[in-house]
Predict the structure.
Amino acid sequence: MHKFLARRLAALPANSSHFLYSRSHYGHSPTNLPNFAHEWQILARITASMGVAHGMLTKRSRNTIYNTRNTLPLMRSPSLRRLAAALLAFAAIAPLTHAAIKVAYSDWPGYTVLEVAKQKDWFKQAGIDVDLVWFDYLPSIDAFSANKVDAVTIVATDALVTGASGGKSKIIALLDFSEGSDMIVGKPGIESIKDLKGKKVGVEVTLVEHLLLLEALKANGMTQADVQLVNTATNETPQTLASGSVAAVGAWYPISGQALKQVAGSKKLFTSADAKGLIYDVLAVNPTSYATHKEEWQKFVSIYYKCVAYLQDPATREDAVKIMAAKVGANAADYGQNIPGTHFLNLVEAKAAFKKGTGLDSIYGSMTLGNKFNLDNNVYKDSQKPEAYLAPSIVEGLK
């Protein structure tokens, strides 16, 4: 009721016939209303300062109303004072919530686990209004860059790319790292990464599988110069491998699994389990939203790790998998078998990964490597500093 009333107070003029009709429902006859015009406008300004005119009552709003000493004495009408008192009563019991924060998420287990919170109504229970918006991965990044959402679930290296082109963000939570779901798959007869020397490899150039390939080559004493890259859209890698035109492809789940199924005799040559921490997934938030709604983001991050705990608890794992699989239209049993390819970070692990370091066990080390990869491949020209993006304070403060 307070949202409805405040919107009318702030938006409608005192001499509006619609306004008079609406007010008559609160026990006033139309003939008495003109006497309240000035006071009504005062109350409209008060409710607007409270945030009610935008459908929200915040802790700051409650403080604001008590500081209007120069305004409240002007409200001489008993009826209007009763109305003001009613508004204050609503403010006292209203949940601490702002307008919805919008979060773009997509089809990756570390992102889809948020569906658990949505289905369990955990955001509402925590007193925050969250709008989870489902996208394909690249459109989710586009939506974030266009300020259509407040946050996006994204690969850390991609957050650097987005930031370099103007879509700056604050990474406030570490979600997971790939532990086998990303892989280099060889065609029949290719037994190891070393067998790829002088041969063609299909990857989507400058994306994470390209980075994974370079790490695989490095681990085997090779460089990119030892193979021929064939720029291949990730969703087309199974067909490309089946055609025999390349010796191997790079792909992520579920496409990597499709390649293995479609090409008899193909095998995994190198996976993200061999380079843990190379591919981190994170929650990247618009800096303005982060600064303005830090309390809400703290609750959101806490709930994310609650989702992870729900998935990792043997007693509730089956239910979590069922919810996640239903969201992406997958068979729950198959989906559950592939979840181990994503290492979900619990709160303790996220805190550890947020510590500064040069190795892949630190998000700082991983993003530094990603930045070098982006520079070497001309993804962007200006070096991006991980420190400018990483904001660990929320995770560090959770218990």
